[in-house]
Design brief:
CATH superfamily: Winged helix-like DNA-binding domain superfamily/Winged helix DNA-binding domain
CATH topology: Arc Repressor Mutant, subunit A
Number of helices: 8
Number of strands: 2
Structural class: mainly alpha
Distance between the termini: 65 Å
Oligomer: single chain
Radius of gyration: 22 Å
């Protein structure tokens, strides 16, 4: 047996790769049993779909939902420290630092040492950050929010928001 034949025989079989777009078809064929009765499972499935749609809507800007949220909070709360912004969004400190590193590297925000507490950093949007936020807000309104609005009546949206807020505050 020559070396080429031996090396071909040792290679593991290629694994099938399932594209993300194909996943919903495969999920429909799987019996999820009592998992379908769990509120957390339903919320997570909805969240994943909403996030996927959001990411497609802002694709030209390459922003994640978390990055968009940070830009909104920085715009509304300029000069607050990173611990406050992270806490408001429920993002763990190490994850938030990485997120800020990415936004700062893109020139969208700036961290500066606090004059009141030298151990912390205050956050501000840059002009580029404000412009990116304005573009993202338009894209989200035009592409993402309009699509969601077709799924829920205004009263249903208000009710859903109230219920989700109640859950978030209680747990």
């Amino acid at each position: 047996m020559d070396n080429a034949s031996r090396s071909q025989r040792r290679k593991p079989p290629a694994r099938a790769v399932i594209k993300r777009e194909a996943a919903p078809d495969r999920v429909a064929a799987i019996d999820v049993g009592s998992l379908g009765d769990h509120l957390g499972y339903a919320l997570k499935r909805a969240q994943l779909r909403v996030f996927d749609d959001f990411i497609r809507a802002v694709a030209p800007l390459k922003l994640s939902p978390a990055q968009f949220s940070v830009l909104i909070l920085l715009d509304a709360n300029s000069g607050r420290n990173q611990a406050e912004i992270a806490a408001a969004l429920g993002i763990l400190r190490p994850n938030f630092v990485k997120l800020l590193d990415e936004l700062e590297a893109r020139g969208l925000c700036r961290r500066t040492r606090s004059e009141d507490d030298r151990r912390s950093h205050v956050l501000t949007l840059t002009d580029k950050g404000r412009a990116t936020l304005a573009k993202a807000t338009r894209l989200v309104a035009d592409k993402h929010d309009k699509k969601l609005a077709t799924l829920l009546r205004a009263s249903e949206r208000a009710q859903l928001m109230a219920v989700l807020d109640r859950i978030a505050r209680a747990l």
